[in-house]
Amino acid sequence: MAAPKKGRRPTGAQGRPGRALAFILIAMVALTAGMFLTKQTTPRLGIDLAGGTSITLKAKSEPGKPDAVNETNMNTAVGIIDRRVNGLGVSEAEVQTQGRDHIIVNIPKGVNEQQAREQVGTTAQLYFRPVLAFADGAPAAPEPKPSTSASSSPSPSASGSGAPKAEGSTKPSASATPSSSATSQGRVLSEALKAPGTPTPSPSASESKKADDSKATPSASAPAPAPTPSADPAVADLQAKFAALDCTKEDQRAAAGKGAKPEDPTIACGQRGNAWGKWVLGPAQVAGTDVKDAKGVIDQQRGQWIVQMQFTDKGADKFAKITGELATKQSPQNQFAIVLDGKVISDPSVSQALTGGNAEISGGFTQQSAQDLGNMLSYGALPLSFQEDSVTTVTAALGGEQLTAGLIAGAIGLALVVIYLLVYYRGLAFIAIVSLMVSAILTYTIMALLGKGIGFALNLPAVCGAIVAIGITADSFIVYFERIRDEIREGRTLRPAVERAWPRARRTILVSDFVSFLAAAVLFIVTVGKVQGFAFTLGLTTLLDVVVVFLFTKPVMTLLARTKFFSDGHPWSGLDPKRLGAKPPLRRSRRGAPVPAPVDAKEA
């Protein structure tokens, strides 16, 4: 008889089961320790189990862009909203389209609802616009009707004041003279709008003094000068809107500058400290798309939160150019407004060109508002505007009922599997049950750690995937046990049968698990939302099934085959040769011919 080739393990070799068992034991201890060290001892639950908020957004077409609501823009918006929400540290946030113009955002419990609503609904269109004029948020007082009487001419004390003044003060005087205010404002806006981004000449001190003297000493034969409206209808219309704008009212703040194109001048509201202000702004010089990265950080020197921005190469050139031009102007026209979705969030002044491609936004940010703004700027502006159609809150009580129902279903399924194993496999059921327990420990600890690591959250479909995995894991044990029984039926003893059955069982188990994993992977890729939770859990448990069978079930079976209870084929071992209908071992003659079975005397 030829000896087995050197370097190749004989068919009946026992291997070293202790090493495999030690490895999986170490892995279980490490995972459990990691779970307690990270203080994440339970898996994170999704919105359908823990409760949360469901937001329905409806896309709106922008003026002049009736075809903007299309599949491409909707998918882009879904991606940006998903990144924004996950940027908040939200686990299992579900963002998906519904129909042609709706997006559904499901956010689990534990997230500030108002913060999340601002993140998902804010368009985040950022522009840097030069400031042309500034005033307090309240509307300007109505102008009195001009009088032809010389005695009603403006008093000298009101000369030179205006709301706002081109020369400097960003706060209008309470005793502003409408005549001088309108004339100065109209001149400033006309000059600035003719050449946005270029230095705007300001009246000299001598010219201001002459104007003041002429207004302070009017001639008796000539009436006082009336307000001079701009000859440009666009400027006049902007003047009127600016004067009438009341930024202390929420509806007017929302409507200010709505629909304005980046290349057009506009008006906007914003906060300076605790008070509202209003601005006349020139065409946008730098856009949010020119921002490469942004993040909210704390300024250690000033002890306040700011938003640091890094521009792209083109954005850095644009920013250096506009700040260089603004540095030559007087206040407030040496300022540029940072406008987010039509609202001025900061209006810093410029004394020199800012080069290097970096900038910061300051203005009374809290940690949350600074990080939120940096989050939105980093992930980009939405290609569409959205309005909230509905906001629904899912209570934790409903989620708890669903979780309880899922756990009951899992317990029933597990109990049925255990009963089947005990009835059909008897002693072998012990190996299967312990293997299922090992698989459950690995699954639980990994899910808990993934909740902390990648934000994985367990939802109801994921629970269903775990329940299905019970059957997949049990199926692997059954395949191996049946292969062992087949070897025993062929007349082999248990220890050789365990080793000879493994190669065939291993191949079957790998093929079966590969098909299950492939199905889970395809399902995860082509689906969205909660179905991905099912696919992820199914794929994870399928991989763990391979690990458990190779590193635990097979080594344990090898060790138990050496015990008397199993090796002697005890009736309750599940491997009794008589119950299995084992064939008697074949005896052969020296020539190799089978020896005939003994003949009964009666038959002879």
Strand order of the largest sheet: 5-7-6-12-11
How many H/I helices?
A: 17
Mean pLDDT: 74
Uncertain runs with pLDDT below 50, 5 residues or more? 6-13, 144-185, 195-228, 586-592, 599-604
Name the overall outline. Answer: elongated
Total beta strands: 15
Largest sheet: 5 strands, mixed, barrel
The helix-and-strand class reads: alpha+beta
Distance between the termini: 38 Å
> Helix proportion of residues, in percent?
40-55%
| C-alpha-based Rg, rounded | 39 Å
Task: Please describe what this structure looks like.
With 604 residues, this protein is of the alpha+beta class. The chain is built from 17 helices and 15 strands. It has helices spanning 17-37, 47-50, 71-87, 113-121, 178-194, 205-216, 233-244, 250-255, 313-326, 367-379, 396-425, 428-453, 460-489, 494-526, 530-560, 564-567, 577-580; strands spanning 44-45, 52-60, 94-98, 102-108, 126-136, 266-272, 275-281, 286-287, 291-299, 304-311, 336-340, 343-346, 358-365, 385-394, 457-458. The strands form 4 sheets. Strands 5-7-6-12-11 form a 5-stranded mixed barrel. A hairpin with a 3-residue loop joins strand 3 (94-98) and strand 4. Helix 14 (494-526) packs antiparallel against helix 15 (530-560). It is elongated, with a radius of gyration of 39 Å.
